Amino acid sequence: MPLTIEQAAYTEGLLRKVGFTPTPEQEPILKCLKREILVSGGEQSGKSMVASKYLLKRMPEVKGPALYWLVAADYERTRKEFEYIAEDMLMLGWADSANVSKRVDPGLITLKDFTRIVTKSDNDPRTLAMEKPNGIIGCEASQLMLTSFERLRGRTAPAKGWLFMSGTMESSLGWFPKLLTEWAQGYGDSQSFSLPSWSNVHVYPGGRSDPEILRQERDQSDAFFMERIAGQAVPPAGLVFNEFRGDIHVKEWAQWVKGSHVYLAHDPGYSSASATLAVQIIDGQVRVIDEVYEKLLTTEDIITMVYDPIKHPWAVDIHAGTADVAATQHQAAPSVVEVWRA
Question: DSSP 3-state helix, strand, coil percentages of the chain (rounded to 5)?
Fold first, then answer.
């Protein structure tokens, strides 16, 4: 929900009180009020500072005592965010130094209204249960496992809280760079941002043309520079179409267009699963409208499921299909291609 003019002015005032002025690249991140935010930051981009200020800006949304988590692969990786947040709370007079722990393993900041800001370690999944945080900051989130991300996502649901994940990419593989690409243009209540190293003008006063940035670009590999400095995902080597980008080439579509040809793309399997995509080509665009993904079923079973017009109304428009080359193999039985043809 958009902030009122008064709320927006108040949150901007909080940043001024703690002496923080966002850069042009940081500003849209701090203004984003979606439920899930992902920030891929280059090295020394100030992503920990931005994370701490994001928490500060969203705290006024909750009336009364609230609960916030700082989560990382281990406690030590929450230190920067914890120290920045503690400094802000003390400067605003929202907390007393006696109620700010000296340690981060775990760390606890208790505010005067009994709001708690707690550090959590992914090394102990038991710490990520039982409570209903109003907001979670994932520190060095690119180092968290997919299961951890899914767990954190679940913990924000009861209180309809937000999840802010920031980190520097270790590579362009895994859930973190995947979501960075998919959420770049906004995806429902999710949004991603890239925060390049040169956006931190306190470290690189020359910005993109800073001599140190140019040296890194000259001396490092393209992949290293894009991932670790620019905060951008790089298509993995070996892709058939290495120009493919999820943020540009993938969008959500309504559903099957009745009366237009449906094409099947079949990857046969039994114990390793059988996958059949139902695809339409509309206005020159390939649209995947459904998938039949099953294990431990024979080819005849799969065909029966695919052609079921009750489960799959698009079945009436099936026109043609293609299959993986493995479909031509004989495994002591007719090949998958032969069964489909029959």
Answer: 40, 20, 40
Residue carrying structure tokens 């030590």:
76
The answer to whether 78 touches 70, Cβ cutoff 8 Å, is yes
How far apart CA 124 and CA 96 sit, in angstroms, is 29
Query: In 3D, which of 134, 137, 138 has the Cα closest to residue 159?
Result: 134
Residue 67, SS3 per DSSP: strand
Give Cα 104 to chain centroid, integer Å. Answer: 25
Residue 253 has a pLDDT of: 73
Which residue in the block uniquely carries the two structure tokens 């959420």?
A: 183
Mean pLDDT score of the chain: 89
Q: Check residue 245 and give its pLDDT.
A: 61
Of 161, 155, 140, nearest to 34 (Cα)? Answer: 161
Residue with tokens 């930051």: 41
Helices (H) and strands (E) in the chain, counts: 11, 11
CA neighbor of 225 nearest in space, from 196, 201, 202: 196
